[in-house]
Amino acid sequence: MTPVELSRTVLCAVRRAVDEGELRVVVPERALVTVPGPGGCGDYATNIALQLARPAGQPPRHVAEILQARLLGTDGVTDVVITGPGFLNITLGDTASVALVEEILRRGIRYGHAQGRSVDLLPLACPREVRAVVVMDALARILRSQGVAVHTRCEGELAPEWVDILGVRVDDQPARPTPRQRQTPSTAPYPAGPRHTLRPLPAPADPLPLGRDAARWALLHPAGHDRPRIADEHLVQRESNPLFRVRYAYARTRALSRNAADLGFDAEPGDVRQDLRQDVRRDVRQDVRPDALHHSTTHITTHLAAHPRVLAQAAAHRAPDRLARHLVTVADAVLPLLPAVLPRGAEKPSAAHRARLALAEAAGAVLAGGLSLLGIDAPEHI
């Protein structure tokens, strides 16, 4: 069950309570489902009872008890605990994340991409400025991943180094035609009608000395209304650099897959939570805490499940920065899991290791796919 599906399940519980007369409220359009905060438990938490308490004219905890009774009888939900003033903490069934991991491994870097194609053509345009061109290039990639047909145009001729170093491409740009172009009319003229012109805040300095990957990240990671920082901080190989964390997390997942193959086992999606419960009794490692791993796997599956929605929002809001920040979130969630993927010493590979490896590989696929849409390389070795 993904967070989106769990949100629908919570709304169904609200609707049943309303239909049965225990709550007199308007059923909201959505229920916010997040990872439990401090003092919470389980896999997900929702504040829907606090949201409905005032319109229902009842204490939040009483509303939570009404919804708790209905959620406990739902397929895929094994436990519901009320904490604080009325937060519902939901524990899902043992196979909650297996289908998600299987889907990601099956689709690979195309996880989150739309299945069909739009019949409409979206014209994008930008001024002749390096950040605007890079943003348009990344946005076009994201839109096409969502099935949108895109035609891009720059309002001036591209600098050759933008193409050679930054790897940008546009479908149309004003340029002096060659004799052959004068004889051969274009087969893809820029579409007439309204177009969306991208005008992010310009780069304060030339990003080309940073190289392709760091330059594109520096221009794409900030929101369009924020001025980007063009500095060597994007090149440092340390934790303070978000781009490094994303690429390092991906490289670690690939290294784990290679090392697992050397040990004679591969990834197999499974019940990661059950494996971690077993580790509470037998794992004596100083650097791997089972409770931290449990929260890590919950965070990972939550963010992986959100990836298709993030891509759709980045396309709808014309905001590649949303995808960049999402990749940082995925990387930060998966890094605590990685030390526990491989067996140590004389320990033999178990279902726990295969399930953790599958989850790590799923996160790696999301990171690689996201970097590709931003036009940034995902190295297998760092």
From TrEMBL:
<feature type="region of interest" description="Disordered">
    <location>
        <begin position="172"/>
        <end position="205"/>
    </location>
</feature>
<dbReference type="InterPro" id="IPR005148">
    <property type="entry name" value="Arg-tRNA-synth_N"/>
</dbReference>
<dbReference type="Pfam" id="PF03485">
    <property type="entry name" value="Arg_tRNA_synt_N"/>
</dbReference>
<dbReference type="GO" id="GO:0005524">
    <property type="term" value="F:ATP binding"/>
</dbReference>
<feature type="domain" description="Arginyl tRNA synthetase N-terminal">
    <location>
        <begin position="4"/>
        <end position="92"/>
    </location>
</feature>
<feature type="domain" description="DALR anticodon binding">
    <location>
        <begin position="246"/>
        <end position="382"/>
    </location>
</feature>
<dbReference type="Pfam" id="PF05746">
    <property type="entry name" value="DALR_1"/>
</dbReference>
<dbReference type="GO" id="GO:0004814">
    <property type="term" value="F:arginine-tRNA ligase activity"/>
</dbReference>
<dbReference type="GO" id="GO:0006420">
    <property type="term" value="P:arginyl-tRNA aminoacylation"/>
</dbReference>
<protein>
    <recommendedName>
        <fullName>arginine--tRNA ligase</fullName>
        <ecNumber>6.1.1.19</ecNumber>
    </recommendedName>
</protein>
<keyword id="KW-0436">Ligase</keyword>
<keyword id="KW-0067">ATP-binding</keyword>
<dbReference type="InterPro" id="IPR009080">
    <property type="entry name" value="tRNAsynth_Ia_anticodon-bd"/>
</dbReference>
<dbReference type="InterPro" id="IPR036695">
    <property type="entry name" value="Arg-tRNA-synth_N_sf"/>
</dbReference>
<dbReference type="InterPro" id="IPR001278">
    <property type="entry name" value="Arg-tRNA-ligase"/>
</dbReference>
<dbReference type="GO" id="GO:0005737">
    <property type="term" value="C:cytoplasm"/>
</dbReference>
<feature type="compositionally biased region" description="Low complexity">
    <location>
        <begin position="178"/>
        <end position="189"/>
    </location>
</feature>
<dbReference type="InterPro" id="IPR008909">
    <property type="entry name" value="DALR_anticod-bd"/>
</dbReference>
<keyword id="KW-0547">Nucleotide-binding</keyword>
